[in-house]
Amino acid sequence: MSEQVIQTEKLTKRFGSFTAVDEISFSVAAGEIFGFLGANGAGKTTAMKMLTGLLAPTSGSATVAGFDVYRQTESIKRNIGYMSQRFSLYDDLTPRENIRFFGGIYGLGKSEIAEKGERLLDSLDLTEAADTRLAALPLGWKQKLAFSVALLHEPKLVFLDEPTGGVDPVTRRRFWDMIYEAAANGVTVFVTTHYMDEAEYCDRVSIMVDGRIAALDTPDGLKRSFEAMSMNDVFIRLARPAKRGEG
């Protein structure tokens, strides 16, 4: 049996009388690309915050990269990568400076940062732009750099929060090639997305509705369960408009 990098059992988060995440149970295997879908307010952001050690659960249990979400949040943060559409790198720094900064945060030594940084810049064809302010680079290049930086410290698991928002379809497909490569090297990828076609790229997909997991299966399994619908139609069938506030 594959190593389980994420395991949750009835994981719950309440804010007063409001239940944002309601007893979700699932596991994610090493090297798996796991899609986490849900409308705004469905609870997926709150769930991700608990799994990344940013928010304490109300009840239930979970381990991430072998660490407990209640007692070992700092260990979780050191052993995962994280990339968000909303924030990843600093626009006022150059690619080289961003690599140095985040390499230091991840606890890498100067020589290791220099070696990995040059290799990373070369692999992304960014050597000539290494000392250009990030704000001057196209969004697609920023996203690919941000993903590579999230893997700089060689984590077992990387969380991607809507990583391809705002980029063109060709760039999105190339970004997914990078995700496939990471997974082939044993990195577990936990990705939220609102692009239904991207759900097809995942090994398994979870769809959250009103704080609960409404469906969890492979893309083909979900389509079979819903009479060969497309992933977009499956999502529409399950994820009615939420009235739960942010989540």
Secondary-structure topology with pairs:
Blueprint (H helix, E strand, L loop, with lengths): L3 E12 L2 E12 L3 E6 L5 H8 L7 E6 L2 E2 L4 H6 L1 E5 L10 H11 L4 H14 L15 H12 L6 E5 L7 H16 L3 E5 L3 H4 L4 E6 L2 E6 L1 H7 L5 H8 L9
Parallel strand pairs: 3-8, 3-9, 6-7, 7-8
Antiparallel strand pairs: 1-2, 1-4, 4-5, 9-10
What is the CA-atom radius of gyration, in angstroms? Answer: 18 Å
- CATH topology name of the largest domain, in short, is Rossmann fold
What is the beta-strand fraction?
25-35%
The global form is globular
Q: Could you estimate the helical fraction of the residues in percent?
A: 25-40%
**CATH superfamily label of the largest domain:** P-loop containing nucleotide triphosphate hydrolases
The sequence of SSEs as H and E is EEEHEEHEHHHEHEHEEHH
